[in-house]
């Protein structure tokens, strides 16, 4: 019994570390494309990043990359790729107008009429058996919410240290979220794909990309999520 508890704690610790581990970007030159990228980052097609700045903007603040969880087959986690940048007002306004015209939907930070893509691990297969009911009440609620809104547009659940909020999206209320493209389907190799009860059948796998923008802060968050 003691060994089983130790195994649960150990495995859970590994999972949580993998879920929330993110890397800073290395600013490098890749062959043919001058994007920000993490060394070894080749999991998704760079076409998903075509709305990202091609070179490091003057106001570059942060780059985040969260990978899939490969340690536990029963756990689900998307691939998220994020760049955060601050601009002067003139530059911000010029970028804003372009994204506004290209977006397929505009969302408030606290809109609930969307699907949220987030890491989920309610069932885990360990060396001592199958462990269930591991997720928080909040995540279970979000999973139920997603299932009830099967035809809505998916966006990531944002978890950015300097822009944390209790809104539905995780961003402060002065941000507006512009989704540029979202499609269901398989866009990753099979080894990266995990099914999840937190998503409706239509959006079992897919991708979503866009920007979140704050007129107040002149900050743009470029994002893509693939699962």
Folded structure, characterized:
The structure is a single chain. The chain is an alpha+beta fold. It has one domain. It is 20% helix and 26% strand. The chain is built from three helices and ten strands, in the order αββαββββαββββ. The chain has helices at residues 2-20, 89-102, 137-148; strands at 60-66, 79-86, 105-108, 115-117, 124-126, 129-131, 154-156, 175-184, 206-214, 219-226. A six-stranded antiparallel β-sheet has the order 1-2-10-9-8-3. A hairpin with a 4-residue loop joins strand 9 and strand 10. It is globular and about 60 Å long. It starts with a helix and ends with a strand.
Keywords, please?
single chain, 227 residues, alpha+beta, 6-stranded antiparallel β-sheet, 3 helices, disordered N terminus
Question: How does the SSE layout of this entry go?
Answer:
Elements: H1 2-20, E1 60-66, E2 79-86, H2 89-102, E3 105-108, E4 115-117, E5 124-126, E6 129-131, H3 137-148, E7 154-156, E8 175-184, E9 206-214, E10 219-226
Parallel strand pairs: 4-7
Antiparallel strand pairs: 1-2, 2-10, 3-8, 5-6, 8-9, 9-10
State which percent range the strand residues make up: 25-35%
Proportion in helices: 10-25%
Low-confidence stretches: 1-35
Task: Give the H and E element order.
Answer: HEEHEEEEHEEEE
| Overall number of domains | 1
Total count of strands = 10
| Oligomeric state of shown chains | single chain
Arithmetic mean pLDDT = 82
Distance between the first and last residues' Cα:
36 Å
How would you sum up the major sheet? 6 strands, antiparallel
Computed Rg = 18 Å
Number of DSSP helices? 3
Strand order of the largest sheet: 1-2-10-9-8-3
Query: Which structural class fits the helix and strand makeup?
Result: alpha+beta
* Overall shape: globular
């Amino acid at each position: 019994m003691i060994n089983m508890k130790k195994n649960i704690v150990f495995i859970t610790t590994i999972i949580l570390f993998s879920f929330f581990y993110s890397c800073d970007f290395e600013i490098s030159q890749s062959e043919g494309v001058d994007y920000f990228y993490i060394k070894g980052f080749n999991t998704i097609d760079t076409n998903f990043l075509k709305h990202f700045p091609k070179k490091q903007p003057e106001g570059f603040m942060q780059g985040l990359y969260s990978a899939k969880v490969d340690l536990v087959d029963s756990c689900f986690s998307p691939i998220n790729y994020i760049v955060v940048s601050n601009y002067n007002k003139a530059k911000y306004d010029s970028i804003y107008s372009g994204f506004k015209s290209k977006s397929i939907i505009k969302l408030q930070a606290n809109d609930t009429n969307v699907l949220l893509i987030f890491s989920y691990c309610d069932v885990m297969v360990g060396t001592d058996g199958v462990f269930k009911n591991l997720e928080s009440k909040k995540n279970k609620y979000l999973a139920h919410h997603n299932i009830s809104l099967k035809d809505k547009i998916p966006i990531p659940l944002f978890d950015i240290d300097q822009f944390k909020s209790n809104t539905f999206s995780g961003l402060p209320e002065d941000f507006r979220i512009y989704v540029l493209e979202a499609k269901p389907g398989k866009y990753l190799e099979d080894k990266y794909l995990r099914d999840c009860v937190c998503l409706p059948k239509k959006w079992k796998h897919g991708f979503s990309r866009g920007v979140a923008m704050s007129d107040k802060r002149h900050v743009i968050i470029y994002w893509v999520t693939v699962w």
